[in-house]
Amino acid sequence: MIEQLTLYTAKIRPYSQRAELALEEPRLSFTRFEVDLQNKPEWYASKVNPASKVPAIAYGGPKTAPDQPLLESQKITESLILLEFVADISAKLLPKDPVQRARVRFFIDAVSISVAPLLHSIAVLGETPKNLYKGLETLQSLFNNRYRRYLADLKARDSFKKTFDDNYILEQYSAAFSPLRAQKKASKGSF
């Protein structure tokens, strides 16, 4: 039986979504607490994650309100570590076969190193995508068509649909990039 489990998350963060997706996929029972990244609760850093980042999990101990995490519950942070933890407690997230499990971990590692940081630099920091192309070329040699099948399979899963709010994400990114688009449009017109 799974103990008390609370996920501290933020809908806008892809790292949070992958942690939530990992919990949804094996249908684990958990409490979801949305952390306002612009106005984090005062208690969050001291009681959940000293780095004040999401996602994080509080695990174990008696069930409490998410905004009152107990000291005796274990706090687990960093999304890739959370994925491993969920795989350990659910036994349904990764393949049982050690070779297949190693292949999945290789894929996770390759995407985490080659693509995820580059997507972040483009989406959040507004950098040009040229470095992303290099990362994608590296991955392309590894799993070309397999990745497309994986992504289509992922998007078709109920757990993905439940954890990915495409309208919300689109609104947030549109709001974040509207000033940049307006600035770029204005600079083109000034020549």
UniProtKB/TrEMBL annotation:
Annotated GST N-terminal domain residues: 3-94
Organism the protein comes from: Collybia nuda
Name of the protein described by the UniProt record: GST N-terminal domain-containing protein
InterPro entries: Glutathione_S-Trfase, Glutathione_S-Trfase_N, GST_Omega/HSP26, Thioredoxin-like_sf
GO cellular component terms, A-Z: cytoplasm
Pfam families recorded: GST_N_3
Domain of life: Eukaryota
